[in-house]
Write a structure and sequence with these properties.
It is built from four helices and six strands, in the order E-E-E-H-E-H-E-H-E-H. The protein has about 140 residues and is an alpha/beta fold. Strands 1-2-3-4-5-6 form a six-stranded mixed sheet, sandwiched between helices. Helix 2 links the parallel strand 4 and strand 5. The model has no long low-confidence stretch (mean pLDDT about 85).
Length: about 140
Amino acid sequence: MSAASRLYFNNPVGRVMEHPEGYAHIIYEPGLRRLDHLQSFLTHTGKLLGLRGWNRLLGDQRLMTPFTPGESEWIVDYWLTAEQRGIPRIYGAVLLPEDDIARLSVSQLMTEAHVAALTYRMFDSEAAAQQWLRQVL
């Protein structure tokens, strides 16, 4: 059995965890978000990646509500560019939301993110997502 993940940051949006296999594990909580909380959540995710020299993350969005247009715009236009400049490419395994509308929101965002700094794959299974992350070392 591997060591447990360690909490790095927590706010109403979710938890940013340090996974012992060398990646950020971000877990979104259900419900509406404030943009400033999302910005803080993802900014801390970027800080963890930079601090540890990591370029991989597991985004657990299974309980997440859809991103708003403002959230999607900030993620693509700011977080995946300026915030991540020190990291040439981020590999993200995304656990898809259970909600169909949220799935569509994530799919649209990921299409836009691909041209930014994120190489990603979407998964329904956490085990499959973790296996893919192990391959992109």
